[in-house]
Specification:
This protein has seven helices and 28 strands.
Length: about 475
């Protein structure tokens, strides 16, 4: 054998040794199967009886029509040649999935799709990994793996039961990596920013759609360069996931309320925005410019209208860097917000009221009489009273509000003196801003109307404030 061949063989052997001690080796493909929903943990006997399928060449798996009755299981084998060379296993898969993960046929852990945990094992709070949205990243630590993992060949099963909103899944979105210290060092990290930093800690609890859960909020601000190690302002909060369509996004939005040390709801100013009990952390995921809401609200205010005030921030949840968010005051009535007279009900006479109210057109329980059912050219109007809260108004007041809104709609639909029942300037401004921004939800979702005086014999409606652009 020539000297050159010996050198090449030595290099190949060395590379092979490095690879096998720092990485997992895999069989060629993931396999999958759909099974009827299970109520108990699965066993080795159950997995061994399954007839597995191999994905098509484009790696796309389409969910069956009866997907709500089914569970998807994905599996593959991997080899670990040295148990001492890794710190954790990293799974990456579609962010929409809640999963149960089995190692060598034994359940290792469960991950809800809304559970946000630290994604940088071995690193401290001063450096947080930055990763691309769209994948769910789940680290399984060495400590969690010790009861299950073995040297040599291992198997992993990923069980996915929440298929209702999922039409298809690509296997190439699913990966498994063995993480060592060198791999951790190569991650892109977040350490500082010129924006304020908001740090939410849920103690590793899942943030639900509702109700809100207790958490803490620390705010780092006031420096030219804000660092994770800087001192912060503390708040008690309760937080939940917000939105409708946006709940399916990889970058979700959140609502939170502020509480004092006794966990009594309290109003406070954050980042010099008007004092409020209620706040929104809007995750501009579909808006890659990140600025549509703040820009639109600013334009609307410059037109002489009220719109929610905003502040760009960097968000961290449970030591997990979530990216740039827009802190937004939530729509509400009051001196520092939409300043209309507060609606007051007479405690002694249910037919007497003073003040005004705010309506929301959205996916709401009330239905307008217009358009008539035989008119297929217009979208049916769903609405409800937004302020005060529906549960705080009596049935007499509810009926009066519905009557006033239907009166306004009747004159608008029939073009019968509609300008007596609406504020022309507010409607013109709303039309301009909605068309200028090409707002897909305009006129039918996240649309607000208010009447300043419930006792006016001719109810007059203003449109606004604007929301969700």
């Amino acid at each position: 054998m020539s000297y050159l061949k010996k050198i090449l063989l030595f290099i190949i052997a060395a590379l092979a040794a490095i690879f096998t001690t720092t990485q997992c080796s895999f069989n060629k493909e993931w396999s999958y199967v759909f099974i009827p929903n299970q109520t108990e943990s699965l066993t080795q006997a159950f997995f061994s009886e399954i007839t597995w399928k191999t994905p098509s060449k484009n790696s796309k798996i389409s969910t069956p029509e009866n997907k709500e009755e089914l569970t998807l299981i994905l599996t593959r084998e991997f080899a670990v040649n040295d148990l001492e060379e890794f710190t954790s296993i990293l799974l990456e898969y579609d962010h929409r999935f809640s999963t149960e993960i089995y190692i060598n046929n034994k359940k290792c852990l469960t991950r809800h799709k809304h559970l946000i945990t630290s994604e940088n094992p071995g690193k401290n709070i001063d450096k947080l990994d930055v990763y691309k949205y769209g994948n769910k990243r789940v680290f399984i630590s060495k400590l969690e793996l010790e009861p299950f993992l073995k040297k040599g060949k291992n198997s992993i099963h990923i069980v996915i039961a929440n298929l209702n909103e999922i039409n298809s899944f690509r296997i190439n979105k699913l990966s498994l990596k063995l993480i060592d210290n060198e791999t951790l060092k190569s991650e892109r990290v977040f350490t500082s920013t010129t924006l304020p930093i908001l740090i939410v800690n849920t103690n590793n609890l899942t943030i639900p759609d509702e109700p809100k859960i207790k958490a803490t909020l620390n705010i780092i601000t006031g420096n030219k360069l804000n660092k994770l190690s800087d001192s912060s302002i503390f708040h008690n909060i309760k937080i939940e996931v917000r939105g409708n369509t946006s709940q399916s996004f990889a970058k979700q939005s959140y609502s939170f309320n502020l509480y004092d040390t006794n966990f009594v709801k309290t109003a406070s100013s954050i980042l010099d925005l008007p004092p409020s009990k209620k706040w929104v952390l809007q995750g501009p995921y579909s808006d890659k410019s990140l600025i549509r809401n703040p820009l639109t609200y600013s334009l609307y205010r410059s037109m002489g209208n009220y719109a929610p005030q905003t502040h760009f921030v960097e968000l961290i949840i449970n030591k997990n860097y979530r990216g740039v968010y827009v802190l937004t005051e939530k729509i509400q009535t009051g001196k520092n917000h939409l300043n209309i007279p507060k609606l007051i009900q007479n405690a002694n006479d249910s037919t007497k009221h003073t003040g005004g109210y705010l309506l929301e057109l959205d996916r709401s329980p009330w239905r307008s009489n217009y358009p008539p059912k035989n008119d297929t050219s217009a979208i049916p109007v769903a609405y409800c009273v937004f302020s005060p809260k529906p549960h705080k108004i009596n049935t007499v007041l509810e009926q009066k509000i519905k009557t006033q809104f239907n009166t306004f709609e009747t004159h608008l639909y029939n073009n019968d003196n509609p300008f007596n029942y609406l504020d022309t300037n507010s409607f013109i401004d709303y039309l301009i801003i909605t068309e200028l921004t090409r707002n897909t939800d305009g006129y039918c979702l996240s649309t607000f109307l208010y009447n300043k005086d419930i006792n006016n014999p001719i109810p007059k409606f203003y449109i606004g404030p604007i929301w969700d652009y």
